[in-house]
TrEMBL record:
Organism: Bacillus mojavensis
InterPro entries named among the record's database cross-references: LD-transpeptidase (IPR050979), LD_TPept_cat_dom (IPR005490), Transpep_catalytic_dom (IPR038063)
The protein's name: L,D-transpeptidase
Annotated catalytic residues: 111, 127
PROSITE patterns: LD_TPASE (PS52029)
Domain L,D-TPase catalytic stretches: 27-151
Annotated keywords: Cell shape, Cell wall biogenesis/degradation, Peptidoglycan synthesis, Transferase
Pathway: Cell wall biogenesis; peptidoglycan biosynthesis
One Pfam family linked to the record: YkuD
Length: 176
């Protein structure tokens, strides 16, 4: 009977773990609107910090913890009917959409840009812009389901990540 119940539980349980993300080692992304930087955390270390552009007013880029729900290569720009990969496409090389403000990942996202000079500035309508090379790298490193924290904080990425359990502070044991 016990074997039967365990078998049923394995069949109906989700592949992605239930509960709070991130789990130790899971990728995690932090965007700091105060510094216009994005940190990628993988395997309990900050893998990279990248310059980004965020909302032209403070309320446009939503703050909170969200999940990546959709990813697209050379995304189509619906608003102005611009094909993916076109030089005039403002979404650049990749789209990494997240579920902010009850949306499905098609409104708010981390994406490339055709205006590389905008990186580091407050210019977007709510999305997070990255250099195309950087967003291609990020796209390869994070799966759908990755948690994204957007904040406006003067602390270091390490301090923010430890608070949100994306980094586990290692204990230093003195040598005797």
């Amino acid at each position: 009977m016990r074997f039967f119940l365990c078998s049923i539980m394995m069949i109906i349980s989700p592949i992605w773990p239930l509960g709070q993300n991130p789990l130790p080692g899971d990728p995690y992304v932090i965007v700091n609107k105060k510094t216009n930087e994005l940190a990628l955390i993988i395997d309990n270390k900050i893998e990279g910090v990248y310059r980004v552009a965020t909302g032209k007013s403070d309320d446009l880029t939503p703050e909170g913890e969200f999940s990546i729900t959709v990813k697209a290569v050379n995304p189509y720009y619906r608003k102005k009917n611009i094909e993916g990969g076109a030089s005039e496409n403002p979404l650049g090389a990749r789209w990494i959409g997240f579920d902010a403000r009850g949306t499905d990942g098609r409104i708010y996202g981390i994406h490339g840009t055709n205006r590389e000079e905008s990186i580091g500035h407050f210019v977007s309508n709510g999305c997070i812009r990255m250099h195309n090379d950087d967003v291609v790298h990020l796209f390869q490193e994070i799966p759908v389901g990755t948690r994204v924290l957007i904040t406006k904080d003067s602390r270091s990425f390490e301090e923010i990540a430890i608070e949100h359990k994306a980094l586990i502070k290692k204990q230093v044991v003195p040598v005797q």
